[in-house]
Specification:
- This protein is mainly alpha-helical.
- Helix content is about 75%, strand content about 0%.
- It has six helices and no strands.
- The longest helix has 26 residues.
- The termini are far apart.
């Protein structure tokens, strides 16, 4: 059965492709500032992906928290440490990069060979409850998932304290 391309699918594919290219830019650029700006763009496009999936609360959270707050902090730290202007010394060729690229492409082909046929067979079903509703998200987060939520907040706190201790040295 052939896939019927809709406008929403085209927009979703364009946004997903832009997010993938931005993710490659995060890893590919040697300049830390350009890499961080690619990450900002990636977070922003992911927010729009959430909007296209009709999960507005998650999209707003993605744009405000990650793009707005966390990436501003990352760029501030990069500028503070002056990482954008550092030049790396020429590295000797050791073969790790071509092997890594080969395995990365092989993994992408393997994953896409499993995922793309699944999308061809998928039929759209109506949602049982609205995913983007902030009231439902809050009730679920603070009732069913309160322990994982608190565990993640504790891990973030440990990471912040650890980074402060490492920076003091």
């Amino acid at each position: 059965m052939p896939i019927k391309l809709t406008f929403e699918m085209v927009i979703f594919a364009a946004l997903a492709g832009a997010a993938a290219l931005a993710a490659v830019g995060v890893v590919a650029f040697r300049n830390a500032t350009r890499s961080a700006l690619c990450l900002v763009f990636n977070f922003f496009v992911l927010g729009f992906l959430y909007f296209s999936l009709q999960v507005e609360m998650l999209g707003i959270t993605q744009v405000v928290v990650y793009t707005g707050a966390i990436m501003v902090l990352f760029i501030f730290v990069i500028m503070l440490l002056n990482l954008g202007s550092s030049h790396l010394l020429a590295e000797k060729f050791d073969g790790k990069k071509p092997v890594g690229i080969f395995f990365g492409i092989a993994l992408a082909v393997l994953l896409s060979s499993q995922i793309v046929p699944m999308f061809a067979r998928t039929e759209s079903k109506p949602l049982m409850y609205p995913l983007g509703d902030s009231k439902i998200l809050g009730q679920t987060l603070f009732t069913s998932y309160v322990f994982p939520f608190e565990a993640v907040s504790f891990l973030l706190l440990v990471g912040i304290v650890g980074s402060i201790l490492l920076a003091k040295r």
